[in-house]
Write a structure and sequence with these properties.
Radius of gyration: 17 Å
CATH class: Alpha Beta
Number of helices: 7
Number of domains: 1
Structural class: alpha/beta
CATH superfamily: NAD(P)-binding Rossmann-like Domain
Helix content: 40-55%
Distance between the termini: 32 Å
Oligomer: single chain
CATH topology: Rossmann fold
Bound molecules: NADP nicotinamide-adenine-dinucleotide phosphate
Number of strands: 7
Order of helices and strands: EHEHEHEHEHEHHE
């Protein structure tokens, strides 16, 4: 893991930050992408730099719905190569289908699905030069099941899952491993906003997802792991 460079989107969020910390502990260089909350991203990057000497930590606030920014910032970000791309940024949305306006639908699709496609395309020339190239997409249990009031979010994650399955097969012979992790409810700001009734007890923690990412990156054996679902320990079903 030492000296690999990992690009992580949504790095200022709960899961992205936990992934960044776990990769930093292993000596990975980090390129962190965040969204419009530039301060949150900068704070994350500065805290990582302070805690982990000897790794490079670059950060780029970037609205992932804006193709031009994504392309130009990725080119800057990839200047020292890219070994790992983690498409983690995401937007949740909960509303009856008739109240989901098309602008919102487009935004959810762009962040959750279209941006990972664009970033994959941009990363491929660099990944092909790496001996440990991996792409990890963070989907959700909603990529596998349908839940009421989540049609836009669910559709975007189904699309991400389908895309991941296809490129996993397409890129395998090029030495690029592609995985998808589908967690149930993870205790981050996203879930705290969507489900303020939940306390976090028995829930999946961001570190559980980060540990799974680490496991995938460390285990490049002949056994290929394509899809991992993480369910919470609690008995009640949860999206
Ligand atoms: N939490 C859960 O229960 C859960 C369960 C299953 C799957 N997931 C998935 O896990 C991933 C991470 O979620 P999380 O729980 O860590 O959420 P979070 O804490 O809300 O973080 C979301 C991240 O995505 C970024 N983001 C949002 N819109 C963006 C945009 N337009 N351009 C660039 N970045 C943008 C945010 O940046 P800003 O804050 O700057 O906007 C933030 O860094 C998502 O893909 C989510 O769908 C979450």
């Amino acid at each position: 893991m030492k000296n690999l460079t990992a690009v992580i989107t949504g790095a200022s969020g709960g899961i992205g930050r936990a992934i960044a910390y776990s990769l930093a502990k292993e000596g990975c260089n980090l390129v962190l992408f965040g969204g419009t909350n530039a301060k949150k991203l900068e704070d994350t990057a500065l805290a990582l730099k302070k805690e982990f000497n000897g790794i490079a930590v670059d950060f780029y606030p970037c609205d992932l719905t804006d193709d031009k920014s994504v392309i130009s910032l990725f080119k800057k970000a990839a200047k020292n190569g890219v070994d790992v791309l983690i498409n983690n940024a995401g937007l949740a949305y909960s509303a009856p289908v008739e109240n989901t306006d098309m602008q919102t639908f487009d935004r959810i699709m762009k962040v959750n699905f279209r941006a990972p496609v664009l970033l994959t395309k941009e990363a491929l020339p660099y990944l092909r030069l790496s001996k440990r190239a991996s792409i990890i997409n963070i989907a959700s249990v909603v990529a596998h099941n349908g839940y009421p009031l989540q049609s836009a979010y669910t559709a975007s994650k189904h699309a991400l899952l389908g895309f991941t399955k296809s490129i996993a097969a397409e890129l395998y012979n090029q030495g690029i491993r592609v995985h998808v992790i589908s967690p149930g409810g993870v205790y981050t700001d996203m879930i705290k906003t969507a489900r303020p009734d939940l306390t976090g007890e028995d829930m999946i923690m961001p570190e559980d997802v980060a540990n799974t990412v680490l496991f995938l990156l460390k285990n490049r054996t002949n056994a290929v792991i394509d899809e991992i679902r993480l369910h919470r320990a609690a008995k009640q079903p949860f999206s």
